[in-house]
Amino acid sequence: MHTVDRVPPQALPALSVVRLTPARRILDIAVVLPLLLVLAPLLMLLALLVAATCGIPVLFRQRRIGAGGREFTLYKFRSMRTGSTGPGVTGGSDARVTQIGRILRRLSLDELPQLWNVLRGDMTLVGPRPEVPDLARRYPPEHRWVFRHRPGLTGPCQLRSRAYAAQLDGRTDPEEYYLTVLVPQRTALDAEFLSRATAWNVVRFVGRTALYTLSALWDRGGGS
């Protein structure tokens, strides 16, 4: 019986970096530093909760694509079972997600360690969602421009995460659906924000993110 080797994905080409304006970088630091101090007790509580219910490690570390296609390590509270395998995208009812992880994801609490990524300069407050390298290499070429920009803790796509996750449920090939259907939608939203990425619009999206997170408390729809 003959076997056919899978063709490796095309390497992500080097991309020029679209740098943040000084005003946006100052805003990142001015917002994130107080948040880390205020949220320190909550971060410790969440770490203990994950350790008590799911064991260690508490933090999930993953390589993601940053500005210019350069990789960095992203931090999240672990929301999936250790050793679980599957597609590189997560649906709203993904069986890999733990019970406590489903709550963390729904309230976006699993994302809080990324405040450290923003402080380090790997990410910014508002921008495109940070993508995993394997999926980034498989993006349609006309949408790879998004990797020129610094990824964001929140953004127009992140504010639709629950709806996007629900669309992946039941798909035979969720990665293919993500790349062919969702990626064009997401990059169109990113392009709209990035064309007007002023400090004021950043503040506006931070406020919208707070409302989006709070809406999960009364919204009984699918998970994020």
Overview of this protein structure:
The protein is mainly alpha-helical and 224 residues long. The chain has one domain (22-215). The protein is built from seven helices and four strands; from the N terminus they run H-E-E-H-H-E-H-E-H-H-H. The strands form two sheets. A two-stranded antiparallel ribbon has the order 1-2. Strands 3-4 form a two-stranded parallel ribbon. Helix 1 packs antiparallel against helix 3. It is globular and about 45 Å long. The chain starts with 21 loop residues before the first helix and ends in a 9-residue tail after the last helix.
List keywords for this structure.
two-stranded antiparallel ribbon; mainly alpha; 9% strand; globular; 224 residues; 7 helices
Per-chain topology:
Layout: H1 22-54, E1 59-65, E2 71-77, H2 99-106, H3 114-120, E3 124-126, H4 133-137, E4 152-154, H5 161-168, H6 174-194, H7 199-215
Parallel strand pairs: 3-4
Antiparallel strand pairs: 1-2
Overall tally of structural domains: 1
Query: What structural class do helix, strand and pairing data support?
Result: mainly alpha
Terminal CA distance reads: 43 Å
Unreliable residue stretches:
1-8
Strand content: 5-15%
The average pLDDT value, as a whole number, equals: 87
Gyration radius (Cα, Å) is 18 Å
Note the run of SSEs as H and E.
Answer: HEEHHEHEHHH
**Strand arrangement in the largest pleated sheet:** 1-2
User: What is the total tally of β strands?
Assistant: 4
Q: Number of helical segments?
A: 7
Summary?
The chain has about 220 residues and is mainly alpha-helical.
